[in-house]
Amino acid sequence: VSHFVALQIGVLLKGVCYLAEEIFHLQSRHHGSFWRALSACVPLHQHLPLLLISGSAYVALFDGDGWQLGLHLVLASLGQLLTLMLGLH
């Protein structure tokens, strides 16, 4: 379950990185619409349901306090960012 959460976090982080680049092209590519750029870069309609399901299962199966859960999610996010930065994805 944590693997699926990490993969979905990775997809969302990759979309956020794409969005950071697309901000400079709002006028030329997206007619000045931030929401068009967001929907083009972050595929929420595809990955949000799986992120919610796997995230809910992860929270339900997690045996610990909220601090450890947050730490696990931060570490999964950092691992996915490192994978993206090194081009290993």
TrEMBL record:
<dbReference type="GO" id="GO:0035438">
    <property type="term" value="F:cyclic-di-GMP binding"/>
</dbReference>
<dbReference type="Pfam" id="PF23417">
    <property type="entry name" value="STING_TM"/>
</dbReference>
<dbReference type="GO" id="GO:0061709">
    <property type="term" value="P:reticulophagy"/>
</dbReference>
<dbReference type="InterPro" id="IPR029158">
    <property type="entry name" value="STING"/>
</dbReference>
<dbReference type="GO" id="GO:0000045">
    <property type="term" value="P:autophagosome assembly"/>
</dbReference>
<dbReference type="GO" id="GO:0032481">
    <property type="term" value="P:positive regulation of type I interferon production"/>
</dbReference>
<dbReference type="GO" id="GO:0005789">
    <property type="term" value="C:endoplasmic reticulum membrane"/>
</dbReference>
<dbReference type="GO" id="GO:0016239">
    <property type="term" value="P:positive regulation of macroautophagy"/>
</dbReference>
<dbReference type="GO" id="GO:0061507">
    <property type="term" value="F:2',3'-cyclic GMP-AMP binding"/>
</dbReference>
<dbReference type="GO" id="GO:0045087">
    <property type="term" value="P:innate immune response"/>
</dbReference>
<dbReference type="GO" id="GO:0051607">
    <property type="term" value="P:defense response to virus"/>
</dbReference>
<dbReference type="GO" id="GO:0005776">
    <property type="term" value="C:autophagosome"/>
</dbReference>
<dbReference type="InterPro" id="IPR055434">
    <property type="entry name" value="STING_TM"/>
</dbReference>
<dbReference type="GO" id="GO:0002218">
    <property type="term" value="P:activation of innate immune response"/>
</dbReference>
<feature type="domain" description="STING transmembrane">
    <location>
        <begin position="1"/>
        <end position="88"/>
    </location>
</feature>
<protein>
    <submittedName>
        <fullName>STING protein</fullName>
    </submittedName>
</protein>
